[in-house]
Amino acid sequence: MRRVIDHKKRDSYISRYHIDDIFELEMKQYMELFLFNKNEYICKTDEKLEYLFFFVEGKAKVYSTLSNGKSLLLCFYKPFKVLGEVEFMHYETANSNVQIIEDTYCIGISFENIRRFALNDSRFLRYACDSLGEKLIRLSKYSSINLLYPLENRLASYILAYTSKTVREGRNIIVFEGNLSEVAELLGTSYRHLLRTLNDLCAQKLIKKNQQVYEILDLEKLKKLAGDLYE
């Protein structure tokens, strides 16, 4: 995590997402811009969180760590999301892991300043309650996804979240790469089942193995297969 001293960039995000409107008081002076690089964590389970973050650019995955040591994917974060309202409200440590997929910017306000200036701010508290309600609804949805949706659909959604553009043999292509053992664990399946499903997607000509990565052949069909899972 790196604090970015660029008021013009910070103010552009504040304006784009109307972050000022969340508060009754003028809070811009307490808003800081942070950059998280790929693979960094905004928070980890049971670690203390000191900022309320507004997710304004980039992409991250959210997953829980279970008591048996395994991990389970919950969702992906894209702008605009808020992180930390649960921990702020209950003075608790983080209850999930938020890991950066691509370089990400967040507007942060320290819990100290939130508690000092916005603890009795009805507009902010209403916004926090709305956000918590939305997360509760999403949690119910994600539980159903992991139980009821075929791996093919969930894998398609995961692949789309991790695509990147590259050049191979003089061609501009979109690829998916990742640790397949980790992917299998996050999606709650076996490594063998994951490989079978990847082969099925290859047979449907949605993707193809290209050295150590999978090249996306039909992005639109892959999006249709993924639907809005994990969004």
The CATH class of the largest domain turns out to be: Mainly Beta
Structural class: alpha+beta
Distance from first to last alpha carbon: 24 Å
Helix content: 25-40%
Q: Architecture of the largest domain, according to CATH?
A: Sandwich
How does the major sheet shape up?
7 strands, antiparallel
Sum up the overall morphology in one term: globular
Radius of gyration: 19 Å
According to DSSP, the number of beta strands is 11
Name the CATH superfamily classification of the largest domain. Answer: Jelly Rolls
Give the oligomer, counting copies of the same chain as homo and different chains as hetero.
Answer: single chain
- Please name the CATH topology of the largest domain: Jelly Rolls
Strand content: 25-35%
Count up the domains: 2
The average pLDDT value, as a whole number, equals: 90
Give the low-pLDDT segments. none
Count every helix, treating DSSP H or I runs of 4 or more residues as helices: 8
Following the backbone from N to C, one meets helices and strands in this order, namely EHEEEEEHEHHHEEHHEEH
